Amino acid sequence: MRIDRYLSETTGMSRKEASKVLHRGEVTLDGEVVKKGAVQVPSAGLVEWNGVTLERLGPTYILFHKPLGCICANDDPRHPTVFVYLDLPNPEKFHTVGRLDLDTSGLLLVTNDGQWSHRITSPKHACEKVYRAQLADPISEEAVEKFAAGIKLHGDVALTKPAKLTIVNEREALVTLSEGRYHQVRRMFAAVGNKVEGLHREQVGELTLGDLEPGEYRHLSAEEVALF
Ligand code: URA
């Protein structure tokens, strides 16, 4: 890879800024000052900017406990994004695997591997996600049947895929979905005349949050990555 691209990928600076930094003689490759952006960085090359090593992140997989009040986006003018919580050298290269609403907490995966995230979000792969929902009104047995049969959501053509609704107590339930439509859990409960007052994602496939507190994260193991 060209060294100007390497600089912009590892620091987030633009290619123009990278050229300036190079021109000022601030960058070394294996200890030698490099001034030309076209110079190739070999795979084991050591790049330093003002003496600080710039490490390129390969495919990276993060399990994050999303707190309430942050948004699943790379930039937002009004709310903190989930990336505020993640210590990444190049956050603009990352994306969230699906989205949780501003007022939803729970398990969120973050990666820079688009093919991997597609396997989790694509309805074709039917990866199950489990949500715990607090409801405004008592949950009816009829809702359980409707969730299982599929629901016609306002504005959507196809029925929702069969979903499992497990009543925990009068106003709390677990919902297992194998697709991820916009505001799906909230819209499904609205369609059966109820209202979600609290929503938390507990599980994606076999992954759970374990001991992670809101705002904490960890990297997935190779075995966990291979689950999808
Ligand atoms: N369904 C919703 O309605 N909101 C979420 O954040 C996730 C699933």
Task: Give a description of the structure.
The chain is α+β, with helices and mostly antiparallel strands. It contains six helices and 13 strands. The strands form two sheets. Strands 5, 6, 7, 8, 9, 10, 11, 12 and 13 form a nine-stranded mixed beta sheet that branches. It has a four-stranded antiparallel beta sheet with strand order 2-1-3-4, with no helix packed on it. A hairpin with a 7-residue loop joins strand 6 (95-96) and strand 7. Helix 1 packs across helix 2 (15-23). The model has no long low-confidence stretch (mean pLDDT 94). Uracil (URA) is lined by residues 100-101, 104, 183-186, 199.
Layout: helices, strands, pairs:
Layout: H1 3-11, H2 15-23, E1 27-29, E2 32-33, E3 47-49, E4 52-53, E5 61-66, E6 95-96, E7 104-111, H3 114-121, E8 129-135, H4 141-149, E9 164-169, E10 172-177, H5 184-191, E11 196-204, E12 207-208, E13 217-219, H6 222-225
Parallel strand pairs: 7-11
Antiparallel strand pairs: 1-2, 1-3, 3-4, 5-7, 5-13, 6-7, 8-10, 8-11, 9-10, 11-12
Helix pairs in contact: 1-2
The structure holds uracil (URA).
Keywords, separated by commas or semicolons:
6 helices; 13 strands; Alpha-Beta Plaits; 4-stranded antiparallel sheet; 9-stranded mixed sheet; single chain; binds uracil; 228 residues; Structural Genomics Hypothetical 15.5 Kd Protein In mrcA-pckA Intergenic Region, Chain A
